[in-house]
Automatic annotation (TrEMBL):
InterPro entries cross-referenced by the UniProt entry: AB_hydrolase_fold, BD-FAE-like_dom, GDXG_lipolytic_enzyme
Originating species: Paenibacillus qinlingensis
Hydrolase in keyword set: yes
Keyword vocabulary terms for this entry: Hydrolase
PANTHER family xrefs: AB HYDROLASE SUPERFAMILY PROTEIN C4A8.06C
Name of the protein described by the UniProt record: Acetyl esterase/lipase
Top-level taxonomic group: Bacteria
Keyword match Hydrolase: yes
Record-annotated BD-FAE-like domain positions: 34-234
Amino acid sequence: MDAVFPYETLVYKEADGRRLRLFMCHPEDRYAADARPAVVWIHGGGWQGGHPEMLLRHCRLFAERGAVTFSIEYRLMPRDGHEAEPGQARSVETCIEDCRSAMRYIRIHAAELGIDPQRIAVVGDSAGGHLAVCLATIDRYDAPGEDASISAMANAVVNCNGIIDCTGRWKKVVPIVETGQSESDQVHAWLMRHEHAKALSPLHQVREGQPPMLIMHGLLDATVVPEDAVRFYEAYTAVGNEAELILYPHLAHAFVLFDYKTEELEVLKVIERIDQFLTYHDYLPMLAQ
């Protein structure tokens, strides 16, 4: 147990010799017979860094509001220029796969965890925002042997400065296609890689019937440009999906993290806005006036 933010750990999957964990916080008055909403957090770090403990304070705050909360440990890709070692992600698809496995675990064990399997909200930051939005838009990349009849998709999503388009500057995470030397071979390889990038991009996987989403972005963000958030919001709502876009003129990247670059008061304001979104959608109780 953490002395400040008490939590439990659950192993949701074993892969490549690793036991992947969910860090869980729950209300003090939780009982297994409850059917509480769940709030699942996914950390950022460019799919290569970060750790689930970064979001334990966030989990604790929302557990105090009545939800069962989780922070997902997923396999990370090796740093640029290095080959994946056992226990590391081979690609972004592996990161998506692990998050989908975690969601399935929560749903399969919902009754014993005291969770309503139809009220699972996911919140992600940066690369974690990408993974969170993938859980609203991309219904593939499953681990071998998993029960595909159990949905791995979120019922609501909060995207904090998430990467939603891998066809531009973020194409660096998409493997280069080996090709012959002719011009036609090179063009074909470029097109194949571009299609792969689109398949990993929530922006290019928008369709009708996807869950409600809160999209939050800072206008000072130079890591994931705010124009991407606007493009995603426009595409998402154009097909009839429910979304809300909040732009912060004074905030830069990763503004939802404590003890990083944003002042604590500003982080708490962002968390309050997430709370309002989740309350509106019946994931949290109304605050007493």
